[in-house]
Amino acid sequence: MQSGLFSRRLNPKTLAEAALPVFASGLGLIIFDLAIFVWVASELFGAILIPRLRGSERSTRVRRDRGSKILILFTVWVSTTVALAFGYAGIGALPDWVFYPGIVLMLLGVLVRQWAIAVLGRFFSTSVRIVEDHRVVEKGPYRLVRHPSYTGLLILFVGLALAVQSAGALLVLLGFFTVSFGYRIRVEEKALLSELGDSYASYMKRTKRLIPYLI
Asked: What global pTM score does this model have?
């Protein structure tokens, strides 16, 4: 009896499963995959499909993306891939319990981003453009920050880093976010200032970019 129990404890498969982080095995893996699915599905439907069904692209008056869309797509793909690799490798490993608030933050980030997209309506686009009758939107999350859809992604990235239990992943995700979205925000605000003038300049004075009262 004792030898059988002892052999089960030393079973390589059992030891390997025990060594995996929460997000990579068992129920944790199911929860993590579901959170990733919710994120991807929300982008496909909320950020791509619905705007196309509105036909808002046909009313575009000015396009000034300057490569920011391609930069964001590339950096999001690279940073999430590196973050997952860091999580599996245990680089800057964080305790198991941070997985759960990480999942909550991921879902919260999705909600904030989709709320911002819905409030912006036909003015939303994955590329920088100005449509006919474009105006400054100051309701919902836009009362507090100028780019709440990016705030949602920032929250999601922090949650993703916690979910994969890696401080290294957090640094990578925040670093890539700063570079790509920092550039995107500068391009976007320059276009809006050029086309909307004083109304957007006044709005900029009253709000922060990403975090209310801070950034």
From this structure: 0.88
